[in-house]
Amino acid sequence: MTEKLLTLPVPHVPAGESGVAWLRSTVVRFSNGTEHARRRALTTALLEGVDATTLDELAAQVLPGALDDVAVIAPSYQPHEDITSAADRAVERLVARHGRTETTAARIGLLVQAWAATRAFAGHLTAGNPAPPVPLTRRETAAGVVEVDLTGHPFGHGAHACPGRELATKIAKNMAFRALHHRDEPLLLPNAWDHATAVALQEAGYLAVGTTSFGVSAAHGVPDASGLAEEPTRTLARLLTTLPCPVTADVEAGFSADPGEVAEYVASLGVSGVNLEDGRADHLADPAHQAELVAAVKRRCPGVFVNARVDTHWLGIDATLPEVLTRAEHYLAAGADGIFVPRLPLPDVAAFTATFDAPLNVLAGEPVRRLADLGVRRISTGSQLFRAARAAAVATADALLSPGTRSGAA
Ligand code: HEM
Question: Which residues does ligand 1 sit against, CB inside 6 Å?
Fold first, then answer.
């Protein structure tokens, strides 16, 4: 039924000479027939060149400096909404700067479409709510305008289906993943080592899923933290971008010492976050160099949550609180979004959270409530699920194959 209704024309909007009326009558969203086809081609061409991890980046590439005006226009954009004089002025400001052309309208329209819907989508992901952020749309029938329920079609369907779906999903997941680090409760993050475990964890209700470099390396027959799991890490991360929840990838030390290469590697994954560790096989990286890696990633993909891992306590090298704080300071100054210190003793956890506002990530082990009370914002399982699954496989094999066990069960 919904699919059929969505093949009907969108409600007619009268031609407008200026302001929001001009915008409405010039954008793809409220056009039909050949005008729609021409404007649709214009809009999809604009989107093709976009490589953005945040709404700000999207705006900078589509119409620089327009985001404040877009926020004013958005509540007046739909034909059933009232047009405010502020919205009219905002459209005219953008027209004065960029010209009264169909391309300018396409650029403004694209950002307006992105603005509210993507933020609403991120809010839904953060709350674990599967309801579509755009619940309905409108179509014209002989009997007048009807509302069409978009349940099951969150990005629409047919000729007007959302051309920003892929980009919007990526940006919304990035926004949601960041928000999950700034709630009252810590983010509980299980780490998967393959697609099947990641899907199972997401389906069990976890709001985000990470990967474990130990598990991924072991599953591919290479040692952890050896820099040999670059391709399996990338393949898994890309596969996991198809999950409905945000995903963060454990990328060891970034698989290169060159900041530009690490940044390109992270950009190629398409995930919402990465763990970047300062441990190197048998020593710790110079914090200034590690900070350069962090800064390069943040410049290249600002929407990706960089969780900078301090390996002092993991490797047992310089495992003191002052060293942790110094390293954390370097990485946060370089733009890191959070700090992960595996095996940080509890008294040092409290000292860390009293020093920095940035989210602290620790390994699961202590009661969640206790860690939450100490100010921990993210608790991850690391390789523990992988180790447990491996042990369970052996125990199950032993149980099934022990003498006297009946064979033949599927
Ligand atoms: C980067 C962000 C986004 C961009 C650039 C974008 C762009 C657009 C554009 C240009 C259209 C009009 C297409 C046409 O009329 O041919 C559209 C339609 C649509 N968008 Fe998006 N959008 C974005 C985010 C979203 C999000 C997050 C949702 C909700 C999950 C969404 C849901 C829809 C729906 C349902 C339609 C179809 C409306 C209808 O058929 O009447 N969009 N989008």
Answer: 6, 10, 28-29, 40, 43, 58, 109-110, 113-114, 117-118, 121, 132-134, 137, 150, 154-156, 160-164, 167-168, 171-172
